[in-house]
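User: Okay, second chain of the day. Same drill as before: sequence in, structure tokens out.
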Amino acid sequence: MRRFGDLEAAIMDVMWAADGPLLVREVVARLRPDWELAFITVQTGMDILHRKGWVEREL
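Assistant: Same drill. Structure tokens below.
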């Protein structure tokens, strides 16, 4: 199995620690103390994780 990249691992840590589903902006807010990331960067990371089957998306 392929390992997560740094951003993917950070996103998954946030997702696993959450009590329920999170919006991209909520993930950004929880990463912000440690990472200086743009919304679109986190959104792209979450999209990649979705394509890999690690996160689900609701539209």
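The chain is about 55% helix and 0% strand.

User: Thanks, on to the next one.
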